[in-house]
Amino acid sequence: MYTPRPFAFSADQSDAVRRIMDENPFAAMVIPSAAGLETVHIPFLLDPTRGDHGTLRAHVARANPIWQHFGDDPALVIFWGPHAYVSPDWYVSEGLVPTWNYVAVHAQGVPSIVDKLDEVEALLADLSAASEESLAPKPPWTMDRVPADQRTALMRGIVAFEIPITHLEAKQKLSQNRTPDDIAGVAAGLRQTGGDANTTVAALMEKAAR
């Protein structure tokens, strides 16, 4: 990923990078095959305790052929954080052009299949728990609400896998290469436009500029 120096995360921002993956778990996984590139869009869980950069956990439908291309080649998993269009009208400086501010993380590693049913069930429980947590105060849905025989059949219909992350890249393009007045102008413009993404990007810009 092309990352000019002003947009790079520093070495002491590893927690911030992990937070991007945790808060934006629905990602795209790309893996090479004989026919070209295969892609799937699925939620991932990050286990930060396993490996230097953590380990990603996920599953796909068994009918999806992408898992058949797992081998020695690494997969690329792309996480999108907040992003927003930036209008030149918001800058104080003249002669600038439209752009897009965003945060993104690229994680690479070789996928390996998880085939033990107890480990597959644990993955499914962890995935649902992570998503259900955001729906509080609703009582969380749990795997034990599915009858045991149906649960086993459902688990055999998926392929669970893990990706120990061997290479991690992160980028936060938040107008760090602009003047303080330009940054303030863009942040104000985003807030005036409104919307969760715009206001989030405005807050991130102001934080990065401190």
Summarize the structure.
This protein has five helices and nine strands, in the order αβββββββααββαα.
Shape: elongated
Highest CATH level, the class: Mainly Beta
State the total count of DSSP E strands.
9
Spatial order of the strands forming the largest sheet: 2-1-5-6-9
Q: What is the mean pLDDT?
A: 95
What characterizes the major β-sheet?
5 strands, antiparallel
Number of domains: 1
What name goes with the CATH superfamily? Answer: Electron Transport, Fmn-binding Protein, Chain A
Instruction: Evaluate the radius of gyration.
Output: 20 Å
Structural class: alpha+beta
> In what range is the share of β-strand residues?
25-35%
SSE order, as H and E?
HEEEEEEEHHEEHH
Fill in the CATH topology.
Pnp Oxidase, Chain A
Helix proportion of residues, in percent?
25-40%
Poorly predicted spans: none
Distance between the termini: 25 Å
Textual characterization of the structure:
This protein is of the alpha+beta class and 210 residues long. It has a single domain (5-178), classed as Pnp Oxidase, Chain A (Roll), CATH 2.30.110.10. The chain contains five helices and nine strands; from the N terminus they run αβββββββααββαα. The strands form two sheets. Strands 2-1-5-6-9 form a five-stranded antiparallel beta sheet. The chain has a four-stranded antiparallel beta sheet with strand order 3-4-8-7. It is elongated and about 65 Å long. The mean pLDDT is 95.
